[in-house]
Structure formats: structure tokens, C-alpha cells
Write a structure and sequence with these properties.
The structure is a single chain. The protein has 502 residues and is α+β, with helices and mostly antiparallel strands. Helix content is 22%, strand content 38%. The longest helix has 18 residues, at 158-175.
């Protein structure tokens, strides 16, 4: 069996979990699988036991080891030809020790036993509280695979990928004679993950990722505009199809052409219809971060005292989901060995859950929601979103627009930021439309939307039934770490936001 085939279990099968033989002498039913798994990282069962023991030798409540082996490749095209190709390999492991409220963490960029033991003892000293380590429990778990791969990225070369990048470039130019410049990038990533902890579990995962992006410039009458479109999924080479090329090419060219007609509207307070899809950034930035349990545990979130309370209309349900097949934000298990799940944050307008890692879950006396994520083995896991979206309502988008006499329809966003404590946010809207007398009229561009997250959520008065996930290349930054995410939204009416225009 090839190394990648062992990790690349297809279909809704095991993501890769076996018993961790810590403090026991055998695990015979899984000995072959254990050997294959550990061979990838060049470690043995004995090594893992020694490192865990070293991590807990000064006392501690819990310890875990996170191994990562990641391959990254990128291909870019500019001025009609592929002009750059890069590859990178990242390899190493991290040791975490929890002792009461203290966390110790250290990492090494290899898996030499001596250096792993040094890292374990460093983490132990950082977290040491003079406690006594708890007895190890051995637990068998089964995880589903939410990103089955038909053909892995390790099976193809740069020459295999080059025609798809060229085809996307050529299709953009073919769609509109006003296109003057196109850039295309294709990146793929494959991560082998091995996780074990002092509670007795050993988990493996094979995590693929692909992103295809195009941007173009159109020119007419001395004016020029640009637009960008992208798709990103946890998929293998099967992602590269003529259909995805056509969708991205049309979005980027039609979007840039529309910008030639767009104007900046007058600013002020007004109703805003958030279009389905990319408007989900409102949930992620303005609201979602404030639902992450570390902020609430530390009482820095504006929602810290709102658990179990009505925070918006009873027709609103908000979900954070890590189980969508092939989704960029999906994970089979989080970076603490907890199974991914679909978590209702808001149920019928009531704040019912925060997003938890192990630390916050222990603080609240509940089980983790599987949101402990990290950028790489160099970082400790913290509560992070996966795919955050609002469920469908029962309104029609046209009826929602018809309710607005003078306002805007916000369609495409490029970024945003929020102050977690106060909940104040700012979003940059790349494109949209004026709403005049209940109809979409003039295209608009380059405006800011300013508001307060909890208030904006409470001011949502209508929700359409057209939920759409925005499968672009969204990466969330928090505490100096990046994590792949997605978000989505049906069209909603926010009765009042501040629009920064002319």
C-alpha cells in the first residue's frame, strides 16, 4: 500500500483513528495500521509514549502531540504565459501541555526523538503547576471523511496543471474584447496529520486543498476596472474541470465589465440588503468571532453574557459546520482530535452555543464543539470558525428588495474587520446596486459598510430562502494565525447601516 493511499481513505469511511497504546503494551487489532501510519512520520509507538510521558513528568492535566507534513505547490500566469511555479514542504511536530489554566507549547521542525523530548519538557516546564498527571483513558473513535479524494495532487506535475491555467486565461479574453489583462493562479496543498494525546487516542488525516483564482482588467473609453473571482475546496485533481473554468471566467469578466458602469453612491444611514453568498462575511467578522468561546471565557466578547438569551429575530438560525463535503472550511476532526460537527450557534434567535476548543469547553463544563484549530504545528489550537452561515428564511429576495425605498444592495465583499469587545465592524464592498423605490437600479462600487454586529443582527427583519455558500479563498486571521474558512448567507434585509460613499 502506498503511503498516501493509507491516508487517503475514499468515501464516507474512516478519516483515520486507532487506539493510542499509551501505557499499554499492545494494540494488536490495529498493529498494521498503526505501523503504516507512524512510518510516514518515522516514529514508533514507543517514541510517542516517551514524549507523552516527558510532557507530563512535572504534572499536568493533559498533553497532546501534533505532527504535520504539508506539501504546497503554486502556479501563476501573467501576460498570457505561465511565469512562476513554486513548491514548499513543511514538516514538524508540536507538544502541548495543559495544567489548570496554564498552557505550555513547544515545537520542533523534525521528529528526532531527542528533540521531541526536549520540546515536551519545555512545554511541561511552561505549564507546570506542580500537579499530578491524570490516569490515561484509552478510547476508540470513528471519524467520517468529509473530503474524499479521487486523484491526489501528488500524482500530477506542473505540466499536468499548466493547461488548466492557460485555458482559464484564454477563456477570459474570449468572453469580452475589452479585457486587457488577466492573471491566473492555481495552488494545491496536501497535509498529512498525525495527532495523539494522553487520553489514549491516535488520529490521522489526509487534508487536501485547492484554490483557483483569476483577476482581469477591462478597458473602455479611457477607463479601466478590475475584478477577481476564485474557488477553493478540499478536493483533489478532479476539481479541475471545464465547468469551474467557465464559472470563474464569466464571473471575473462580467464583474469587471459591470464596474465600468458603477458609481459611488451618497453615504449615510440607510437600509441594506445583503446579497446571498459573499455577504456571509457579515456573520464571520461582525458576529462569528464574538461567538468564539475564548473571547467569551475571558469576557471580552459583547456576547459574553448573552448565552441562552434572545439576540435576534426568532426566524434566524446560525450554524457553524465542519462537515460539508469538500468544503474549504471542513475538517474530519479538529486539531485537538475532536470529531467535526454541525453546531447551532443561534437557534430561533436564541444564542445557544459558543464555538469551543478543549480549554473553553472545560471552563464551561461541556464537550468541545470541534473548533480547536491551528495554522500549523508551530501554533497552539484556539477556537476558530469552519463554515459559518445563516439558514434559509421564508421570504423571496425580490420581496425583500421591494421593501426598500432608498438603500443599497451589497453583493461582493473583499475584506472586513471587527472590534470583538464592542462589536463594531467595517466592511469594504466591491460591488452592488442602488435600491430605488423597491428596485435595483445603478451599479455601485468601492463603498464601506459600518455598523455594530449585535445591533445589525438584531436589525435583520427579513430573510430569504436562497442560501448560498461563498466558496472563495477566504482565510481567517486571529492571534497571528490563519485558517481556511467559508461562510454563507441567504439575502437579508438589515433595516439600518451606515454606508460610506461620496
Amino acid at each position: 500500500m502506498k503511503r498516501r493511499d493509507f491516508f487517503k481513505t475514499g468515501g464516507m469511511a474512516l478519516a483515520g483513528v486507532v487506539l493510542m497504546p499509551h501505557l499499554i503494551e499492545s494494540c494488536s487489532s490495529n498493529s498494521k495500521e498503526v505501523s503504516q501510519m507512524l512510518a510516514h512520520f518515522g516514529v514508533s509507538q514507543g517514541d510517542l509514549k516517551k514524549v507523552i510521558a516527558a510532557a507530563l513528568e512535572k504534572g499536568g492535566d493533559y498533553a497532546d502531540l501534533f505532527f504535520e507534513h504539508t506539501f504546497r505547490n503554486a502556479l501563476s500566469l501573467q501576460d498570457g504565459a505561465v511565469n512562476q511555479a513554486t513548491s514548499n514542504i513543511d514538516f514538524g511536530m508540536g507538544v502541548r501541555v495543559l495544567c489548570g489554566d496554564q498552557t505550555g507549547y513547544a515545537y520542533v521542525e523534525n521528529v528526532n526523538l531527542k528533540e521531541m523530548l526536549n520540546a515536551a519538557r519545555t512545554a511541561s516546564r511552561i505549564a507546570s503547576g506542580g500537579g499530578v498527571s491524570v490516569p490515561v483513558r484509552v478510547t476508540e473513535q470513528i471519524f467520517a471523511n468529509f473530503y474524499p479524494v479521487i486523484k491526489s495532487w501528488e500524482e500530477v506535475s506542473v505540466l499536468d496543471k499548466k493547461p488548466y491555467v492557460q485555458k482559464l486565461n484564454d477563456r477570459c479574453f474570449a468572453l469580452d474584447s475589452r479585457v486587457s489583462k488577466v492573471t491566473v493562479s492555481l495552488s494545491d496543498e496536501t497535509s498529512y496529520i498525525l495527532f495523539c494525546d494522553s487520553e489514549g487516542t491516535l488520529c490521522r488525516d489526509y487534508r487536501p486543498m485547492v484554490s483557483l483564482t483569476a483577476s482581469c482588467i477591462v478597458e473602455e473609453g479611457g477607463r479601466s476596472e478590475n475584478y477577481r473571482s476564485a474557488r477553493s475546496f478540499r478536493k483533489g485533481v478532479e476539481f479541475l474541470t471545464d465547468d469551474v473554468i467557465e464559472v470563474i471566467a464569466r464571473e471575473v469578466v462580467e464583474g469587471a465589465a459591470l464596474m465600468l458602469k458603477a458609481v459611488k453612491p451618497k453615504g449615510g444611514e440607510m437600509p441594506v440588503v445583503m446579497a446571498a453568498g459573499g455577504s456571509g462575511i457579515l456573520l464571520h467578522e461582525a458576529i462569528g468571532h464574538a461567538f468564539e468561546a475564548d473571547f467569551n471565557r475571558k469576557n471580552t466578547s459583547i456576547f459574553s453574557d448573552k448565552l441562552g438569551k434572545q439576540i435576534c429575530d426568532a426566524g434566524i438560525n446560525i450554524v457553524d459546520d465542519g462537515t460539508i463535503i469538500g468544503n474549504r472550511g471542513s475538517i474530519n476532526f479538529d486539531d485537538e482530535g475532536i470529531a467535526s460537527q454541525r453546531t447551532y450557534i443561534v437557534t430561533q434567535g436564541v444564542l445557544t452555543n459558543y464555538l469551543h476548543d478543549r480549554i473553553s469547553a472545560k471552563h464551561y463544563g461541556i464537550t468541545s464543539t470541534g473548533n480547536g484549530r491551528r495554522q500549523s504545528f508551530r501554533y497552539t489550537p484556539i477556537p476558530r470558525m469552519r463554515c459559518t452561515y445563516m439558514e434559509n428564511g421564508n421570504q423571496n429576495e425580490q420581496d425583500i428588495i421591494a421593501e426598500v425605498k432608498n438603500g443599497i444592495y451589497a453583493q461582493n465583499f473583499t475584506n472586513g474587520q471587527v472590534q470583538i469587545g464592542a462589536g463594531d465592524f467595517t466592511f469594504y464592498v466591491k460591488s452592488g446596486y442602488l435600491i430605488e423605490n423597491g428596485k435595483l437600479t445603478q451599479p455601485i462600487k468601492d463603498i464601506n459598510i459600518i455598523g455594530n454586529g449585535p445591533k445589525a443582527l438584531a436589525d435583520i427583519t427579513m430573510v430569504a430562502g436562497n442560501l448560498k455558500l461563498d466558496d472563495s479563498t477566504w482565510t481567517c486571521g486571529k492571534n497571528g494565525q490563519g485558517a481556511p474558512v467559508t461562510q454563507g448567507l441567504p439575502s437579508v434585509l438589515v433595516k439600518k447601516l451606515t454606508v460610506g460613499g461620496v
